[in-house]
Structures are given as structure tokens and as C-alpha cells.
Amino acid sequence: MLLSKHLKGYEKDIVDVVLGVAEVSKTISRGFITRQGKTDTSNVYGEQQAAMDKWADELLINELGGSGLIRYLASEEQPELLEFESESDIALSVDPLDGSSLLGVNLAMGTIVGIHRGGVLKPGEEMVGAVYIIYGPLTVLVYSLGDGVHEFALNTDGDFILQKENMTIGSEKRMGPGAARNTYLPFHEEYISKLEADGYKIRFSGSFVADVHQILHKGGVFTYPGYQGSVRGKLRLLFECAPMGYIVTQAGGAVSDGYVDLLSIVPESISERVPVYIGGKREINLIMGLPK
């Protein structure tokens, strides 16, 4: 089944946005071969931008912002919320190319998009939906609009074709533990030790979207915790954690900052960082129950 057919029955403006994201992702997937280097610019976090980062960001802004389909766009690569001339109330939070540090070694990376109405500074539980695209051996699109999680793969004709419908998170014992172990906070150290004692295998590539995609399929937990020197962790609430958490929750999993449901957190700014634990309910309940 084609993505466009699968989306029938949802609100037209939301469908058009998802299809717009899908079209841009096709262009991004073709752009890797000619954009392997670094630029002389940095993003709002002071990180040197890869050429693909900057190009993917500009492409998403120009194509989606210029489409008339959205009113606002917040990008991980931009310091401020962007506003466009549109009658729409749709707002997007976008990580144009998550995992771009892996460009030089040809590992999977992706695009993450959160879909909101009225603005982006709202808790994840109020999102309309979320989409992510994995650029790997296959280009894969996963979406949820609040009614299950569905996976599509790009075929040789340039169409996204349904692969899995109503996905549910796996039950295998896998963990993707971010941050250096010698910087772990005590409760997180205890958490990882409990998982290790229970036989969890480490699966961690350094691409958040790809690692969570594996957890969605196989089971377990990905975590990038708060740590010594940064109790708020590394990953961004709006651009990474909330959209991916929305999808994993729709698949029967859960997401937390270690204390509360991450989807209940109201962002204070578009650049807010947050610790993240994302995966199966068993694994998330374990971290939530540990004394801090």
C-alpha cells in the first residue's frame, strides 16, 4: 500500500504535511554522495555543521515553509522559531539530520519531525503526530498520527510502500547507553548495572534515531541520561526526544526523563535539553522507580 493511500481518513492538512516531509526525505536520501564534508559554520549549540546538516535544514525550510502548509517551523539548526505566511496552524519541530557525525563511516542516520498545532512549546502528549525517516540500506519512513505506528520503505520507483502496520515494540533485552560511564549519576549507574545483570546486550551506534528505531523493532531501552557536568543531558526535547517518544509510546512503549513521563514536560525554550529513557514499559518503569 502506498503512503498516500494509507493516510486517507486523517485531516487533509496533516496528510499534506506528512506527504511533504516524505517528498523532502527522498531528496535528502539522494544527497549524501555529494555532501560528505564539514562546513565552516556552527549551529545554535556551537556544534560544527556537516554539509548535509546545513543542506537538509535549508531544504526542509524552503520546501515545507514555502509550501503554505505550515505556519511555524523550529529546527535544531536554527536559533529561533521560523514563521511563514500561511493560514495553517501547523507547527513542526525538526531535526534535519540526526546522527550526522556518522557520515564519514557510512552508518544510518535520519530526519525527525514532530507535528503540532498552534505552536511547538507544548508537551509532547499534545502533539498531532510524528514522523521519522531512516537513511540506511533502505530509506524507511515511520509515522504515527495518534492511531498506531506504521512503517514504509522507499522502493525503486520512488514510492513509500507499507512494510509494517500497527507496530508494537519488541521484547528483546537490548540497551543503548549514552554518556561516559565515569560520568554516570548514582541512580543511573544502578540502573545500567541492573540491566547488565539481567542480560541486556549493548546496541549503540551514536545515531539517536537509528538506535531508537532498533529498540522499536527489537525491544529494550535507549538512554542518554543526565550526567556529571550536564544534569539535563545532551539530547533536545523538541527535536529528538518528544517526537521519537510519541512514536514509541504509540507502539506500546514509554518515554521518561527518569522522573516523569517525558511527554508531559512543557518545553521552556525550543533548544531545551532533557535526559531521556525510551523503550519498553518494563525498562522505563524500572528507572522511574529507582530512588534519586
The helix-and-strand class reads alpha+beta
Number of domains: 2
Distance between the termini: 47 Å
Beta-strand fraction estimate: 15-25%
- Under the CATH scheme, the architecture of the largest domain is 2-Layer Sandwich
Q: What's the CATH H-level homologous superfamily of the largest domain?
A: Fructose-1,6-Bisphosphatase, subunit A, domain 1
Q: What's the β-strand tally? A: 15
- The value of Rg in angstroms is 18 Å
* Broad shape: globular
Biggest sheet strand order reads 4-3-5-6-7-8-9-10
Q: Give the % helix.
A: 25-40%
Uncertain segments of ≥5 residues (pLDDT<50)? none
What is the CATH T-level topology of the largest domain? Fructose-1,6-Bisphosphatase, Chain A, domain 1
Provide an overview of this structure.
The protein is built from 7 helices and 15 strands. It is an alpha+beta fold. It folds into 2 domains: 162 residues, 2-Layer Sandwich (Fructose-1,6-Bisphosphatase, Chain A, domain 1); 116 residues, D-Maltodextrin-Binding Protein, domain 2 (3-Layer(aba) Sandwich). α2 packs antiparallel against α3. It starts with a helix and ends with a helix. 46% of the residues are buried.
Topology summary:
Blueprint lengths: L2 H4 L5 H19 L7 E5 L5 E3 H15 L6 E4 L6 E2 L6 E9 L10 E9 L11 E7 L3 E6 L5 E5 L5 E5 L9 E4 L8 H12 L3 E2 L5 H11 L2 E4 L12 H14 L3 E3 L19 E4 L1 H9 L3
Parallel strand pairs: 3-5, 11-12, 11-13
Antiparallel strand pairs: 1-2, 3-4, 5-6, 6-7, 7-8, 8-9, 9-10, 13-15, 14-15
